[in-house]
User: What shape does this take?
Amino acid sequence: MLTYPQILGRVDITRTFAGRELNTEYLFGLFAQLALNPNASTLLGVPMNYTIVHFTANQNIASAATIITFDFVSLGIVLPVEIDTWNVFNAQGQILEYDATFRWFEYLLDTIIATVGAEIGATSTEEIIQFFTVALVTNICETHQAYCNGTNQQYANYSACYDFLTTQVRFGEAYELGMNTILCRSIHENMVPYRPSVHCPHIGPTGGGVSKHQGTDLKLKPCSLSLKRRLSMRHGKRNNHQFSATSIANLQMQGVQLSAWESHVPICSLCRVLVDIIQYCTDDLTYLGVVSEPYFTNQPMVPYGFANSDPTVAAE
Assistant: This one.
């Protein structure tokens, strides 16, 4: 078997998964279910191919950065996603523990939302979110009606499910796929057909111990705006490097609450210095451009035995 029976895994945008069966469902079953129902309304994609751009290993620990091409079939979008992983293996070659990070996931979600928004002719972010809310909740409630019966039933009927999720549960941010959100339930909905007794509660009103708030630090800053966005909203649309430490001080005088990091590290002031040297704070990169940007560490970090023997080949 690929995994140890008591495997522990963590995915940054969701939660920690314990045990072989649960990890098998989420690592493989999730995408298999999406492939079986490609036209279902979801913000998840079907993996098409992959490229390992970084790999290194030492004894029983391996780390890799992999770019996977996902086909978001129901949305008509194909995009690459980088997933960075750390894996620990036992003497039998089974995965004991792993840690996975979806790199630039917030940018990915913003790109999907903006692309779909343009397709449907939406005039505001709120309109796009409402479009996705209706689509995702419809899918969740249809799945509940089909699989969550008897002791697994979470809602009285389809209408009760739809009304509750559209009025009592927020859509969610990119970092809240493991919290009390529609985004969280949309992921776990794909697992319901495998084990309704386990996964029906995850799409129910309580979230079944999965779709709920996690940690007081996240409760303190739901839907918080970044400093850059707050500056832009208060001072109009200007280049980021025009904002200085004076702007930060003015915001504080106006009663705007800044985090300790924002208060003590005037990042926009720093950008003002750097922008004259290298164009850091500019809008010249799309999500696709960021993910597909060449890695300058490819050549030195290829696995032993796979290095190019041609000394004229430069690292990309």
